[in-house]
Amino acid sequence: MEDPDDDLLDQWDVQMLPTWMRFTPRALFDDESTLCVAQLTGTGPRGEPLVLEGPWTLSHRRSGALPKHVVDADFGPNT
């Protein structure tokens, strides 16, 4: 996977890679301190383009390399 461009990293206030982010579907906020996006774009499991319509709100963030059990505990399907 390629690193995202610097503009995107600045927009999302990413200070180090990897940075783990969980977005949840929510209404857009007027609060500028809360990161909200209208849609999320990326690549699906088979390499196909993927667009998830929002709005989406950043609900959790961790930076740095993390062991798999920490990622599962913080970002897994049961959280």
N-to-C series of helices and strands: HEEEH
**Percent in strands:** 35-45%
**Structural class by secondary-structure content:** alpha+beta
Number of strands: 3
Structure annotation, total helices = 2
Radius of gyration: 13 Å
Poorly predicted runs are none
Our measurement of the CA-to-CA distance between the termini, rounded to an integer number of angstroms, reads 26 Å
Shape: globular
On the 0 to 100 scale, the average pLDDT is 84
Please list the strands of the largest sheet in the order they lie side by side. Answer: 1-3-2
Instruction: Kindly state the percentage of residues in helix.
Output: 10-25%
Polypeptide structure, described:
- The protein is an alpha+beta fold and 79 residues long.
- Helix content is 18%, strand content 38%.
- It has helices at 6-11, 68-75, and strands at 19-25, 36-43, 49-63.
- A three-stranded antiparallel beta sheet has the order 1-3-2.
- A hairpin with a 5-residue loop joins strand 2 (36-43) and strand 3.
- The longest helix has 8 residues, at 68-75.
- The protein is globular and about 30 Å long.
Topology:
Blueprint: H1 6-11, E1 19-25, E2 36-43, E3 49-63, H2 68-75
Antiparallel strand pairs: 1-3, 2-3
Task: Name some characteristics of this structure.
79 residues, alpha+beta
Task: Explain briefly what this protein structure is.
It is built from two helices and three strands; from the N terminus they run αβββα. By secondary structure, it is of the alpha+beta class.
